[in-house]
Amino acid sequence: MKRVAFIFKSSPHGSAAGREGLDALLATSALSEDIGVFFIGDGVLQLIPGQQPGLILARDYIATFRVLPLYDIEQCYICADSIRERGLSPESAWVLDVKPLESEALSEMLHHFDVVLTF
C-alpha cells in the first residue's frame, strides 16, 4: 500500500482548494491506511477555529477537519515557520490536533511518502 501525503497550502477562503483537498483526503482514507496531512504556508489558516465563512458567502467546511481521527488519519503536521510568519502561535488552539514541525523536519517527513498531493 502506498503512503499518501496531503499538503494544504491554500487559504481557506477565495478558492475551493481546501474543500477539494479535504474531499480527496476523506475518499483516499477508504483506500489507504497510511496517510499524512501537512498544513504549510497559508494552509495553516485552514485550522483556525471560529471562522465565519458564511459572512463572505463561502462554504463552511473547516470544522470537518475535526473528523479526521474518526477516519484513522492521525499523522497531522503543521509548519511552525508558517505559523510564526502569520503572527500565530504554535500553541494556538486548532480545529485538529496537529504536531508543529520546523520546515526542515516537515520536509524530511514528507520524503517518507510515496505520493504527495497538494491543495
UniProtKB/TrEMBL annotation:
Its main location: cytoplasm. One of its GO terms (biological process) is tRNA processing. GO terms for cellular component: cytoplasm. The keyword Transferase applies. GO terms for molecular function: transferase activity. It comes from the Bacteria. It is found in: Cytoplasm. The keyword Ion transport does not apply. Transmembrane segments: none annotated. Keywords: Cytoplasm, Transferase, tRNA processing. Pfam families: DsrE. Belongs to the DsrF/TusC family. Part of a sulfur-relay system required for 2-thiolation of 5-methylaminomethyl-2-thiouridine (mnm(5)s(2)U) at tRNA wobble positions. NCBIfam families: PRK00211.1, sulf_tusC_dsrF. Heterohexamer, formed by a dimer of trimers. The hexameric TusBCD complex contains 2 copies each of TusB, TusC and TusD. The TusBCD complex interacts with TusE. This is Protein TusC. It comes from Buttiauxella izardii.
